[in-house]
């Protein structure tokens, strides 16, 4: 028996949010559970493929009008949204915690992220979307201008672990670029996105521009990907492959933000206390249910003992419990399936000879899906823990003889999402970073430095994804670029007569142009 606190959001309020999903007619409902005690807290419609097609069609109609809004009017919606999110922070945190079971500080990270993303794109969208003059084929005679048009309707398929960031932050650049959205949130966490949708409408977003369809991924994925003009998927690598296949069949452009087995490297000159505190944050934030969290640590033998002791001590200092306040460091896992996966990874490792330095137990006394922050050592390649993403609060600790060995082993993974490097010489850390096959590297930080640098691209190499979010690219991927080239004089094709002379002239022209371009600064 646990004394899990009851959800602070009323069933009536959740029912109000569920009404923002408008299926074509009455549908059976999909129950949504609170991981803290596994109770059903609300229901949303179990949408069908026809509901998705209707949502895409409504979004397309509304999007046509939205795309004609002056950019400053679209920006104003997100500027208001930024302020409103921060003003109503606490009630949003209640919703996020209710359906994810995460600790409040982890939920806060999402709210700050969504507000920062709204601010960033509100400040930068105008300039990024403004048409730009490019160098024409023949300078002065050819005028070339690059334009960016909205793609139309963007489909967003998001996971449960960061239901605000990965649904709403991801929608912000797409909307600012003049697109409409059809979002399919995860089955387990639809209310956070619906809460944000309600707020966006209050901030001035026209009603049908942002649609949410709730229901099962395998049923709704296909019609969504077929109907939209771009699909942004965040989730597991396995489902990412299915989404990519479907997108390929329909020639729908897509970006895929997928899984990771992220390494942390502690170099021989690292401050072990700082590195241990950073590692604890990087391994156990959101109970390890974070795509960029760190599941492998490679520590140089020169500092291995001190680092291990500090890591174990810091990990044991974490508080694990349920609570709709800031009193606990680590919250619950999402559900039984994930708990069983985490347990099986640790059990398999222990059976094959690994050692648990701390943790390694489920905590049913706290709630049905709690699992202790866990450090495992003596992990060998035949253990599942070695290279499969656990997506829970479990990290493997390896000792290495050199920095080169750390880099080699860090790169020996199918994934390439995020990494963290700890050293007292930041330049050395940056040199190591350049040798790591991952999309983001944090030097003397775990993951937040790269994620929160919204001006810089974020995404995965190898099996961790295709494409990037954040920065200019994270906005322009939601546009079709169009080049309009206007020829001021003559044609760029050979004349009917005198082709030999034309060939000599064109060749000379290219030679001269190369000289000039080399001389230009
Ligand atoms: P998941 O792939 O099981 O589900 C993600 C979404 O896809 C859900 O909305 C689900 O309903 C939907 N879906 C399921 N089957 C589908 C199908 N056949 N067609 C279309 N959509 C379908 O992932 P998850 O378990 O919810 O999330 C955890 C995974 O996501 C981890 O691997 C994690 O690393 C990854 N993730 C990656 C990032 C990133 O930015 N790279 C961020 C968060 C999570």
TrEMBL record:
Signal peptide: none annotated. One of its GO terms (biological process) is aldehyde metabolic process. Residues 29-484 form the Aldehyde dehydrogenase domain. The keyword Oxidoreductase applies. It comes from the Archaea. Keywords: Oxidoreductase. GO terms for molecular function: oxidoreductase activity, acting on the aldehyde or oxo group of donors, NAD or NADP as acceptor. The active site is at 257. Pfam families: Aldedh. Homotetramer. Belongs to the aldehyde dehydrogenase family. This is Aldehyde dehydrogenase family protein. It comes from Haloferax marinisediminis.
């Amino acid at each position: 028996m646990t004394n899990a606190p009851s959800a602070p959001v009323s069933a009536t309020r959740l029912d109000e949010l569920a009404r923002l999903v408008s299926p074509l007619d009455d549908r059976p409902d999909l129950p949504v559970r609170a991981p803290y005690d596994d109770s059903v807290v609300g229901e949303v419609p179990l949408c069908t493929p026809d509901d998705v097609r209707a949502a895409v069609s409504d979004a397309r109609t509304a999007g046509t009008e939205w795309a004609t809004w002056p950019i400053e009017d679209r920006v104003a919606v997100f500027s208001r949204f930024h302020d409103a999110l921060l003003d109503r922070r606490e009630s949003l945190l209640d919703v996020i915690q209710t359906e994810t079971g995460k600790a409040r500080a982890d939920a806060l990270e999402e709210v700050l992220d969504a507000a920062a993303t709204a601010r960033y794109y509100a400040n930068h969208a105008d300039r990024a979307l403004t048409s730009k003059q490019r160098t024409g084929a023949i300078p002065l005679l050819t005028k070339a201008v690059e334009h960016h048009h909205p793609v139309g309707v963007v489909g967003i398929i998001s996971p449960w672990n960061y239901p605000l960031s990965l649904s709403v932050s991801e929608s912000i650049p797409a909307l600012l670029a003049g697109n409409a959205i059809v979002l399919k949130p995860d089955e387990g966490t639809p209310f956070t996105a619906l809460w944000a949708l309600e707020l966006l409408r209050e901030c001035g977003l026209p009603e049908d521009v942002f649609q949410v369809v709730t229901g099962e991924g395998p049923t709704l994925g296909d019609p969504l990907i077929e109907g939209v003009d771009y699909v942004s998927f965040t989730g597991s690598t396995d489902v990412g492959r299915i989404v990519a296949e479907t997108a390929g069949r329909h020639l729908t452009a897509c970006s895929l933000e997928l899984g990771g087995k992220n390494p942390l490297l502690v170099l021989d000159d690292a401050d072990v206390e700082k590195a241990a505190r950073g590692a604890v944050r990087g391994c156990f934030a959101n109970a390890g249910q974070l795509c960029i969290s760190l599941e492998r640590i490679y520590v140089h033998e020169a500092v291995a003992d001190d680092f291990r002791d500090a890591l174990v001590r810091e990990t044991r200092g974490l508080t694990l419990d349920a609570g709709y306040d800031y009193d606990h460091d680590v919250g619950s896992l999402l559900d039984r399936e994930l708990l069983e996966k985490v347990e099986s990874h640790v059990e398999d490792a222990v059976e094959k000879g690994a050692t648990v330095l701390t943790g390694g137990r489920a905590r049913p006394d706290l709630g049905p899906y709690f699992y202790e922050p866990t450090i495992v050592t003596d992990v060998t390649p035949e253990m599942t823990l070695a290279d499969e993403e656990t997506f829970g609060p479990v990290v493997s600790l390896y000792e290495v003889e050199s920095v080169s060995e750390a880099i080699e082993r860090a790169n020996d993974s199918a994934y390439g999402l995020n990494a963290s490097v700890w050293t007292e010489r930041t330049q050395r850390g940056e040199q190591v970073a350049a040798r790591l096959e991952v999309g983001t590297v944090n030097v003397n930080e775990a993951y937040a430095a790269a994620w929160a640098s919204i001006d810089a691209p974020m995404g995965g190499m190898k099996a961790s994804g295709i494409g990037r979010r954040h920065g200019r690219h994270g906005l322009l991927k939601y546009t079709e670029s169009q080049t309009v080239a206007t020829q001021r004089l003559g044609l760029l094709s050979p004349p009917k007569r005198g082709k030999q002379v034309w060939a000599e002239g064109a060749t000379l022209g290219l030679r001269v142009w190369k000289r000039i371009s080399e001389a230009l600064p």
